[in-house]
Design a protein that fits this description.
This protein is an alpha+beta fold and 564 residues long. Helices cover 35% and strands 22% of the residues. The longest helix is centred in the middle third of the chain and has 24 residues, at 347-370. The protein starts with a strand and ends with a helix. It binds adenosine-5'-diphosphate and magnesium ion. The site of magnesium ion has 4 residues, from helix 2. Residues 1-340 are annotated as: A. Its main location: cytoplasm.
Length: 564
């Protein structure tokens, strides 16, 4: 296969390219961050593969990223000596979008520049952002372990197709060259590039090098010297003392590892010593990723062992109900050749998982208490996932229960803002239970006939309509010593809250309607267990309830729908 080939981009790539150029232009310098981020990932991957196969280094273990520019050619080149790409890898990685959720993503686009820019950000911009500033991009790459004669040249003008040709390359790794559009001259400038690199890529743990420059008075311009200098701090961000890291640096680091375009909502950074030694830097994103509900989706955090990258998406390091958290955990105890299988059994990993879950819960508690608006944002995006924790992490159930938020009859709004503690603080004299009703939708819950008597008595009821709620309630039986009770179940026992007069009245009513109840009982024989007079309705003549110990109708429907 020695000839140059011309191939078409996947339809989604074409759409993305078009959108990106038009909607992200106001933030165009991000292309540099994306290309440096890829170069850094490529070096991480090489280091990881080399744990089992040290020959891949071929004597060159000083991993680094270089940024060069050429004023005359109006080009910028970002090169790395990382893992490189074979022909097939280049075709797949630079011609398609393999990410899950791609289809849904494109169906959400509106044509409104600002909204779409936001969406693209959530999707992750990546390599294709080069075309925001470049009219042509060339990628020269040689996979680690491949021969000098076995390299590839990928080229495209970002218009729908790319070419790929076999070429020679003296060293391993990838060089990406951008040929800038005429109006992008500002980037072929050493000062400008350094400024952008420091702003967006200072957290990169590898050295980013540029050629030294000197003022030449005769030519009256900067001239490049044949000597490299490192322009970033080049130490892993999470290993630096907190006091030396700015918010901007944390934010840029998050964008790199979270593949997100937006700032994170909050983060927590700690070094843990003792039985197990590790550093954690964990972020809560602002937006749920497209694949939050996708079993195959990205999840978990990156695992490093003594600063060596080991794997992405190490799902063992956090419980699944915290799968929206992004970040890095760097362990001092795990072996470098740790596999996913070993992770599953490791005691060290269990300690890390428990410690990390507690840190994230503390972070959320802090938000809930001190930044309620941000917590509301968090709840809207991730509340349903957090609810899974009530069953999954029973050791922390009480802490999780305090973080839950519900819609309620207190403010009659679909917004989930009421905590169980709020509810308890408003409980009526003599009330010893937390009441809820669950249904398929907020509207159905808030119109439930079961609510009548509660509204009349001024008793607050939580209005549940999320899919996980019934499941959650099968684990979360009580809060603060008060049991959670569905108002759709029998034996509510509101009597203890009724006054003497009311009780007398109810007894009379029961007596009066005894014959009717008997007739109804016969007519519905076999269809219902029992017919009885109730004090729970105000305006409706009758309602169906389930026995205290039976499944609620909503859960029953869900189980039937699931074929059980
Ligand atoms: P992401 O980094 O989120 O995976 P990108 O669009 O930035 O998405 O990159 C797409 C893919 O192209 C990467 O996942 C990687 O496989 C490949 N790639 C990009 N740049 C490089 C590089 N410098 N070296 C090796 N592979 C690269
Ligand atoms: Mg990338």
């Amino acid at each position: 296969n020695m000839a140059s080939e011309t191939l078409g981009f996947q339809t989604e790539v074409k759409q993305l390219l078009h959108l990106m150029i038009h909607s992200l232009y106001s933030n165009k310098e991000i292309f540099l961050r994306e290309l440096v981020s890829n170069a850094s990932d490529a070096c991480d991957k090489l280091r990881f593969e080399a744990i089992d196969n040290p020959d891949l280094f071929q004597g060159d273990t000083d991993l680094r990223i270089r940024v060069e520019y050429d004023k005359n050619a109006r080009s910028i080149t970002i090169s790395d000596n990382g893992i490189g790409m074979s022909r097939d890898e280049a075709v797949a990685n630079l011609g398609t979008i393999a990410r899950s959720g791609t289809k849904e993503f494109f169906s959400q686009l509106t044509g409104d520049k600002q909204k779409d820019a936001q969406l693209i950000g959530q999707f992750g911009v990546g390599f294709y952002s080069s075309f925001i500033v470049a009219s042509k991009v060339s990628v020269l790459s040689r996979r680690a372990g491949a021969d000098e004669t076995d390299a590839i040249l990928w080229e495209s003008e970002g218009q729908g197709e790319f070419t790929i040709a076999p070429v020679e390359k003296a060293d391993r790794g990838t060089s990406v060259t951008l040929y800038l559009r005429e109006e992008e001259d500002e980037f072929v400038n050493g000062w400008k590039l350094r400024e952008v690199l420091r702003r967006y890529s200072d957290h990169i743990s590898l050295p980013i090098q540029m050629q030294k420059e000197e003022w030449d008075a005769e030519k009256s311009e900067q001239v490049k010297k044949n000597e490299w200098e490192t322009v970033n701090q080049a130490s892993a961000l999470w290993t630096r003392p907190k006091s030396e890291i700015t918010d901007e640096q944390y934010q840029e680091f998050y964008k790199h590892i979270g593949h997100d375009y937006d700032d994170p909502l909050a983060w927590t950074h700690n070094r843990v010593e003792g039985r197990s030694e590790y550093t954690q830097l964990l972020f809560v994103p602002k937006h749920a990723p497209m694949d939050l509900w996708d079993r195959e989706g990205r999840r978990g955090v990156k695992l490093y062992v003594k600063r060596v990258f080991i794997m992405d998406d190490a799902e063992q390091l956090l419980p699944s109900y915290l799968r929206f958290v992004r970040g890095v955990i760097d362990s001092a105890d795990l072996p470098l050749n740790v596999s996913r299988e070993i992770l599953q059994e490791s005691r060290d990993v269990r300690v890390i998982r428990e410690g990390s879950a507690k840190r994230v819960l503390s972070l959320l508690e802090d938000l809930a208490e001190n930044k309620p608006e941000q917590y509301a944002e968090f709840w809207e995006q991730f509340g349903q996932v957090l609810k899974e924790g009530t069953g999954e992490d029973q050791g922390n159930q009480e802490r999780i229960a305090k973080l839950l938020r519900f819609a309620s009859t207190h403010d009659d709004s679909a917004a989930q803002t009421v905590s169980l503690a709020d509810y308890v603080s408003r409980m009526k004299e003599g009330q010893d239970k937390i009441y809820y009703v669950s249904a398929d939708s907020y509207a159905a819950a808030s119109n439930s006939p079961h609510l009548e008597i509660f509204r009349k008595k001024g008793l607050e009821v939580l209005l549940l309509s999320d899919r996980v709620d019934e499941w959650m309630l099968s684990y979360l039986r009580e809060f603060d010593g008060k049991s959670l009770v569905s108002i759709a179940k029998g034996g509510l026992n509101l009597d203890q809250m009724a006054d003497e007069e009311e009780k007398k009245h109810q007894a009379e009513v029961a007596e009066t309607f005894k014959p009717l109840v008997e007739r109804l009982g016969k007519a519905l024989d076999g269809k219902v267990k029992e017919v009885r007079v109730t004090g729970r309705l105000v305006d409706s003549p009758a309602c169906v309830v389930v026995d205290e110990n039976e499944l609620s109708p909503h859960l029953l429907r869900m189980l039937q729908a699931a074929g059980q």
